[in-house]
Amino acid sequence: xxxNTQRNKLALPEYGRHIQRMVEYLRTIPNRExxxxxxxxxxxxxxxxxxxxxxxxxxxxxxWDHLFIIANFDLDxxxxxxxxxxxxxxxxxxxxxxxSPDTIVLKHxxxxxxxxxxxxxxxxxxxxxxxxxxxxxxxxxKAYLAWNKESVSDDMxxxxxxxxxxxxxxxxxxxxxxxxxxxxxxGQNRQKRQQQQQQQPQQRRRITNK
Length: 210
Known about the structure:
The protein is mainly alpha-helical and 210 residues long. The protein has 8 helices and no strands.
């Protein structure tokens, strides 16, 4: 039996073993002109495996680079592009300039919530500011419950908002948060509850009439 564990390791598994065998055969062709001709044929087969990438810039260049990688950079052909060097692929990636975690005050909310509250704190008093505050507050409660399955009080969310905005946003009324109702103000919640209460007797009457 011929098992994959007994075969040569695939340089680029996404192309499969058949392409690797084609490239290995290229290295055995003694005639350079014939070898170049067959190399273009292999490139055509490689490109047909990913037709949705043909419109991407430098797609052909990438295919030729992959051809040399599969051949372990030991392939004497005339490439239309500069030959890649093994050291290019051995170079360690540059260190990413990550943002200092110290700049995120409450990490369980993330930077997005902190940035949104910074922008909301700059808004003038009005309906837009109030609506935005409640929308973010409801989102914060949902985010908090995502990692803490226990209950979380609305007052704690309000304190966190005041802390994140350094006191520029203070919620002092009795507005209650609801994870499922984003951005409803206290008046809107009250109006919605009244509508639901008015609909319930009508629904009961319909059931009774049946």
